[in-house]
Amino acid sequence: MTSLWLAWRTTTRYRVRAMLAIVGVAVIGALLFDMLLLSRGLLDSFADLLRSAGYDVRIIGSEGLPIVRVPIAGAARLAADLRARPEIGDVVLVRIERATAQGAGHPPRPITIVGTTQIGGGPYTIVKGEDLPATSSSWDRCPILVGRRLAAALGVAPGSSLRVSVRPEGIRSALPPIVCRVAGVVNFYFAATSEDAVATTMDALQEALGTSGESADLILVASRPETGPAAAVRVIQQLRPDLRAYSNEDVLAQFNQNGFAYFRQISFVLSSLTMTFAFLLVATLLTVSVNQRLGEIAALRALGIGRARIASLLLWESALLVGAGAVLALPLGGLLALGLDRLLRQMPGLPDRLHFFVFQWRAVMMHAALFAVTAAAAAGYPVWLATRLPIAATLRREVVG
Amino acid sequence: MAVVEARRVTRLFPMAAGPVAALRDVSLRVDAGEYVAVSGPSGCGKSTLLHLVGVVDQPTSGEILFEERDVAGLSEAERSRIRLVRIGFVFQRFFLLPMLTARENVELPQAEARVPLADRRARTRELLEYVGLADRADHLPSQLSGGEMQRVAIARALANRPALLVADEPTGELDEQTGEHIADLFGRVHADGTAILVVTHNPMLAARAQRRVTMKSGRLVA
What we know:
heterodimer; A: six-stranded mixed beta barrel; 18% strand; B: alpha/beta; Rossmann fold; four-stranded antiparallel beta sheet; 34% helix
């Protein structure tokens, strides 16, 4: 006859009260779980997004966050120098331009065109067709990968042709169009859901721009695992002190300090509120329950049942109510997170792969720890009430009552 | 030998208008195997005396000696232990745990006293047979009549083989015929050697006691 067993029998005896408490805690717990997912979800999702490119250092030509880009002069030479260093595994040049794309029977449509020296396995998932070819050929001068949204809008599929006119920044009129072959239809990791994007080879983009291969907006670097990204950053700074090199961790740290502090604060405030509600709900229900059972408790004490047993009985009652509610809160919170995530991701300009609510075991552990504390705190007053009640006076009151 | 002895005990209850004396200079001794009934009008201090003798309350002055130990010098845990293994309580309102069956209610004080499972199962079966409820062992209190609940409560009070059974108006919630059955049961418990102190308004129950004492206005008068 353990205290847990007695608490279980008490809980199942007062089923309606227990169900109300469990449902209440579950609803509150779902909100808490969502706040915990939100507090790190965006950062974790952003980290996944960065790592999905397969490169752990980014080189840009300006100070500040890597989203503000200026062209990197001598990018091709720098790439060649970096490839020669033992700390560097791979280097990819990226150039991003505004352009228009026109399919047969469709008006021109503004797009973002990304030129890259990366061969295969870029930050996209191929939905149809194939990846960009490893080498350029005279008959296939402009192979492109088209975002799924754009492919649907222009009615193109692998093998179709698109007329692409690049509009470099600062130049008022578009350059003459080139005909590009759709190699594949893809989902771009970094493209916003509302953004129409295509990717092509750096050679093809430079041909469309009519420039040589010396410039890039962004250089992606993969460090060697044995030396790590910090060594790669040092090498880059030695070679080109005028540029800024950021490891993925640097980027995340900057976003964590600036971009995501807002979500953490909201999450902290709402988590604290939900914990307070859970505490008040369970403490009130247990206190009412103890007040209804004062005679019973006084009788148990008169029979010699110790204070410790009464305290542990109430603690277990609290733990059962809060525990069941907290467990139920996980699937409930998960469903709610899916809906909220879908809603928030409709904000314009967000990459398709970015999520606000990301499942993390850390959040589950934190959820469990916070509810354990809540269960103990909620049982505090009822335990005090039950273990300190004057036995004789309570029995007398019960009889008179 | 006295199981319990109250020596010149006074119990004052603090009230807004000043302390009220529920007991004044009362002395009472219950010997091993003795059956004592305390009667008197409502509010005369019977239950207060029973609570003091049952070690659930402390006198304002005077001494309570339980098996020759002054309970005033004992810790709460020690007093609780005495109540668990040396005293059995029977209440007017039974106070059985509603979520436990008759058997489980009888087992509870034994479990608290860490009686091995097999022994407490055997003792519980023996006690439920003793009070005539072997066939209701797995019934919840809500499935029992008032008389049956009180018999389960008596079995529970006897679970740890106490030296003293204290009962506060044990027939107060029962009809006359059921009260007689309970009185018979108390007679058997006494015959089996357990000392009993019963507080009652019921003359039929009081008549079964070896010794009857009467209280009035917080004092023993006879």
